[in-house]
Write a structure and sequence with these properties.
heterodimer; A: alpha/beta; Rossmann fold; 2 domains; 14 helices; about 40% helix; B: alpha/beta; Pyruvate-ferredoxin Oxidoreductase, domain 3; 7-stranded mixed β-sheet; about 25% strand
């Protein structure tokens, strides 16, 4: 039976990870996501399910522990916030290059550099375009409620294992720190059987299983890269997720994910009270991006405003999807400032309707 | 019904836990709830605030600039949030330490001297529950029985011996809240 709790977004991730049957968490503290590690330490999942929780000596160590655990076919997660996620990029590239599954949570804060500890959405490029070196992508999920923080842990693991690719939950300090009610799934057992690629010890008479991202033969490396790209095209075909709010009769469209999508829901109400027919498209997967849906909406509306707590990153993907059919602009505050629902309506009026 | 509330005061006054109990009370009567604290450097320097929303519908933005109700527990918060109450909304405050009292005429204003009452009860820790009682007298958005249930959920079991004292404080709050002036809601 599902269980109802009032939890912070960060805590919901931890509890959901235990219940999803995760084998290990490796992390290093950083605001605004330290509750993930704190909750896990307090909850002692090694006594509940045998799950390992370890505070590594650094982010770099943590992601390489994830790499090791993932190579053994285990369900492993890590979490950090922007500067810490930057440190993990080398490891993530290796994990993607070795075709291993894992879950990474980025509770984004304002950047660049150490930046602020307040919420931001300025890591969109890093999350959706690869992040580390080489031609690879992460599956990127963007929760906009505490319920989705919990739900996307299981979804993230499922997708990561389905495609043998790292998945990321891209969220921010607002959802991480906020409490809402959340229905938690029943406890799932930890896996006892492991995938055929997992390095679980060579058995007599069986081939050695090798996990590596290295190929010195360019022709082989190109072949491998093509295989990766095929995988990403499959994700684009099968895994796009989004939510439409008041889009049926919309003349103008807001596109926003995560915290901004919540704020935009109120903007839609305010605008409609003023007689402006506005809808909201909320991408749930940022990679794969709902480009076909946006292309379709571009044929129906007079203009699109991308709302992100950044200088405008997702807006580039929207522009590519729209193919110049309608006006597209961006609005968003930066550095940890959260835009208000009213500001967004004003921006829509000035940049799209009047502009 | 949607009620958007800001609770603001000093750290240590129980601002965040009062919001949490209110949120739990909403859950006990099947409402949607959100609890959004100020965090990080905002909290350094002693002020703490939390936005709580209780609603019968899906909650849109958990981050707000205007509120139906402001529960104000110190002067800095009065200076910051009196102007954030929606016209026709409500402000409830503890008079202790307030040098500039609220002046708006387009909102209802209530006062509860909870700090003084908590001192009389010889238990300053129940201060926030007295305030909560006062708020619920003016806006009974959650039933008292659900508040008690919410309190039970939000307190770890080892503290359940404190439940009767908190209930008593809430009931005292219901009695001592005073109307300064009221506008039609």
């Amino acid at each position: 039976m599902k269980e109802l709790k009032l939890l912070k977004g960060n805590e919901a991730i931890s509890e959901a990870a235990i219940r999803a049957g995760a084998d290990a968490y490796f992390g290093y503290p950083i605001t605004p996501q330290s509750e993930i590690l704190e909750y896990l330490m307090a909850e002692k999942p090694h006594e509940r399910t045998g799950m390992v929780v370890l505070q590594a000596e650094s982010e770099v160590a943590a992601i390489n522990m994830v790499y090791g655990g993932a190579a053994c076919g285990r369900k492993i997660l890590t979490s950090s916030s922007s500067p810490g996620i930057s440190l993990k990029q080398e490891g993530l590239s290796y994990i993607a290059g070795s075709e291993l599954p894992c879950l990474v949570v980025n509770v984004v804060r304002g950047g660049p550099g150490l930046g602020t500890i307040q919420p931001s959405q300025s890591d969109y490029f890093q999350a959706t375009k690869g992040g580390g070196h080489g031609d690879y992508r992460l599956i990127v999920l963007a929760p906009s409620s505490v319920q989705e923080m919990a739900d996307f842990v299981k979804l993230g693991f499922d997708l990561a294992f389905k495609y043998r690719n790292p998945a990321m939950i891209l969220t921010d300090g607002a959802i991480g720190q906020m409490m809402e009610k959340v229905w938690l799934e029943e406890q799932q057992p930890r896996m006892t059987e492991f995938p055929e690629w997992a390095t679980t010890g060579k058995k007599p008479g069986k081939e050695r299983r090798i996990v590596t991202s290295l190929d010195l033969d360019s022709a082989m490396q190109e072949k491998f890269n093509r295989k990766l790209q095929e995988k990403y095209r499959k994700m684009e075909e099968n895994e796009v997720r989004f939510e439409e709010i008041d889009c049926e009769d919309a003349e103008y469209l807001l596109v926003a994910y995560g915290t901004s999508a919540r704020i935009c829901q109120k903007s839609v109400k305010i605008a409609r009270e003023k007689g402006i027919k506005v809808g909201l498209l909320r991408p749930i997967t940022l990679f794969p991006f709902p480009k076909n849906k946006i292309k379709e909406m571009a044929g129906k509306v007079k203009g699109i405003l991308s709302v992100e707590m950044s200088a405008g990153q997702m807006v580039e993907d929207i522009r590519i999807s729209v193919e110049g059919k309608v006006k597209v602009d961006h609005f968003g505050r930066m550095g940890g400032i959260i835009h208000s629902s009213e500001e967004i309506v004003t921006a829509l009026e000035q940049k799209i309707i009047g502009g | 019904m949607t009620e958007e509330i800001i609770i603001a005061g000093f750290g240590g006054q129980g601002v965040l836990s009062m919001g949490k109990i209110l949120a739990y009370s909403g859950i006990m009567q099947d409402q949607e709830v959100s609890w959004m604290p100020s965090y990080g450097p905002e909290m350094r320097g002693g002020t703490a605030n939390v936005t709580v929303i209780l609603s019968d519908e899906r909650i849109s933005s958990p981050i707000l600039n205007t509120f139906d109700t402001a529960i104000i527990l110190n002067q800095q918060s009065m200076d910051k949030f009196e102007k954030s109450v929606k016209p026709g909304g409500m402000l409830i405050y503890d008079g202790n330490g307030i040098i500039r009292h609220p002046e708006r005429k387009d909102i209802s204003i209530f006062r509860i001297d909870a700090a003084e009452e908590a001192a009389k009860m010889e238990n300053t820790k129940v201060f926030n529950m007295i305030v909560l009682g006062g708020y619920l007298k003016v806006k009974p958005i959650v039933k008292l029985e659900n508040v008690i249930k919410g309190l039970k959920e939000s307190l770890p079991e080892r503290h359940h011996a404190l439940l009767p004292m908190n209930e008593k404080a809430i009931k005292r709050g219901l009695e001592i809240v005073q109307k300064v002036h009221e506008v039609n809601r």
